[in-house]
Amino acid sequence: MDKWLWAARFYRTRTLACDAIESGQVRVDGERVKPSRGVKAGDRVTVRKGGMAWEVEVAALAERRGSAAEAARLYREDAASVAAREQEVARRKAAAPSRVPGRPTKRDRRALDDFLNEP
């Protein structure tokens, strides 16, 4: 299981994948599993990571970690899962405080100094 999660690029290392499985953030067919559990095509895997959830079906297996395009072929994600994740991303963007990106320019700094130093 940990090897498949690593190959499918859900986690950067197998150790992180093992930790997630042991903490219950990864479930197969709704049940907790061990990192050494075998995975087969057709299994329904739920991965919770950073407040987001992926509901995927195992499409293929891989022994090695490949490119992102190869990793995307290892699973099929439900349309409901995609919609829920996009909705969560939109909610987080709306809740994030708005700020001016980057450092102020020299002109901005001078304008701010003039404003703050007025009598």
Question: Top keywords for this entry?
Answer:
Structural Genomics Hypothetical 15.5 Kd Protein In mrcA-pckA Intergenic Region, Chain A, 119 residues, 5 strands, alpha+beta
Detailed description of the structure:
The structure is a single chain. This protein is of the alpha+beta class and 119 residues long. It has a single domain (2-94), classed as Roll (Structural Genomics Hypothetical 15.5 Kd Protein In mrcA-pckA Intergenic Region, Chain A), CATH 3.10.290. It is 40% helix and 18% strand. A hairpin with a 2-residue loop joins strand 1 and strand 2. The chain is elongated and about 75 Å long.
Tally of distinct domains: 1
Task: Compute the number of helices.
Answer: 5
Number of strands: 5
What strand order characterises the main sheet? 2-1-3-4-5
Order of helices and strands: HHEEEEHEHH
The CATH architecture classification is Roll
Provide the CATH topology: Structural Genomics Hypothetical 15.5 Kd Protein In mrcA-pckA Intergenic Region, Chain A
Radius of gyration: 22 Å
The structure class reads alpha+beta
User: Which stretches of 5+ consecutive residues score pLDDT under 50?
Assistant: none
β content, as a range?
15-25%
| Amount of helix | 40-55%
Largest sheet entry: 5 strands, antiparallel
Q: So what's the overall shape?
A: elongated
CATH superfamily: RNA-binding S4 domain
The gist of it:
It is built from five helices and five strands, in the order ααββββαβαα. By secondary structure, the chain is an alpha+beta fold. The chain has one domain: Roll (Structural Genomics Hypothetical 15.5 Kd Protein In mrcA-pckA Intergenic Region, Chain A), CATH 3.10.290.10.
